[in-house]
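Reopening this ticket.

The earlier resolution said the output was attached, but the attachment link was broken on my side. Pasting everything inline this time so it's all in one place.
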Amino acid sequence: MKSIFTYLCLLGGALFCNSCEDYLSELPAKGANQPVKNIDQLIGLLNNPKVHEFDATGSFMTDDTGLTPEFYDEAYTYFSDTEPFYYYTFDTDKLASLASDALWTSLYASIYDANLILENVDEVEGTPDIKEQIKAEAHFLRAYSYWRLANQYCLPYCEKNLSEQGLPLRKTTYMEEAISRASLEETYRFIDKDLTEALKIKITTTDQPWRASLPTIQAFLSRYYLFRGEYEKAVSAATEALKNSGRVQLKDYNTISAGMSFIPGFLEFPEMGNYSENQVVMWQEFFYAKTSLNTKFWYVPSDELIACYDPVNDLRRRKLFTYNSMLLLPETANGIFLGYNFFYWLTPQIPSGVTIQEVMLNKAEALLRQANPDKSEALELLYDLRRKRYDATSGDNVIRVEAATNDEALRKVLEERRRELPFTHRWFDIRRFSVNEIEWDDVEITRSFYEIVDGAVNKSRKATYILPAGSRRYAMPINENDISASHGTIKQNEF
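Inline output:
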């Protein structure tokens, strides 16, 4: 079969698919009544990796973000786009009125692809095994996309929120159909059904990590059940994923060294700083390749996030946090600013898809939250992760974590989770912490910044911005243009 993928390239801060396979362009237009001609078209939809999630929420709204007045004073010429400030100050009205919402659009495009596959796979020629594989993958693609949408535009999953607004559930390719928002309970019920179908997948490994295999789905289920508070199921799913991990391996940061990039004066970490198909899409830690793409600004860590790391022994602090020039931050006489870097080339990206380290942390946390906690196994998982993240010369007394109680062990796991999965995952976690069975993990975000008036920064006056635990602003507003296009059938979130 012909290659269907030419790697995504960056142009003008946006990602474009550069010359996908010709037959992809022959697919029916949305809402059209044209038949799919062959199974290769459907396989092409799965082979074309849509790995980049255009999401600013995790970049700017969490307590991991440190856009201080001092930083702005030094870097204000870099802020030609005011959109980050709307996220940073939790301004849902302004966010709703933006020109577009790339995340909503791209995820519903993936749902459209999944629906197109499911509507046509039984009508084209192909072996039963291939058809069953394609069906299972399409169900997973749709389930993942709806889960991602639900955790962006709906309130967190919990008993009291089940009757709240969920998502418009598009189950066909007929895009002109007027669809209102289902309840949150109905939304998750639909995701459940898709995941049940996805688990019928037969293959246990794939050399294309943006496509699904059984371990991919098991890995995602460890996240899915953790977020639903079904901890025994999360442990079971994580155990199976780790047992069947195959090509997915934890990277030892001791093997990653710094070197000079092709741009004079810029630091580059050859493994993670090298933007290429092999290093991003094929990153060995991915069960499911997805990155959160910040097209508006950089990942500027808060003092609180920076303080979470051991500056001497933790290689994440030494190799993922860089000063000024790595992220095009201003060189100034008055301040030296840190930026967080994972994958970087013109536009910063952070893994948001399921990785092996996330699965380890999902399991460790679920082990401690389940009815019969297992502190010993949870801490051993933490040790296995930290051995690949701390300087090998640190010694076990630094790398190994001890805890006298289950509560203390859980705090240690959550601290490690924040160090390992900042920004994007932090936003997801803050949401779910607010509705779980304990209160001490709740997070209130308080920040001091300048007033934002009519989209401009008013440097003559500072303001305090608070996002309390359990805020209705945990559900991002749906873009007004998408609401308008629905002819009023899609209702806005209530804040």
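Reporter confirms the inline version is readable. The first helix runs from residue 22 to 25. The radius of gyration is 22 Å.
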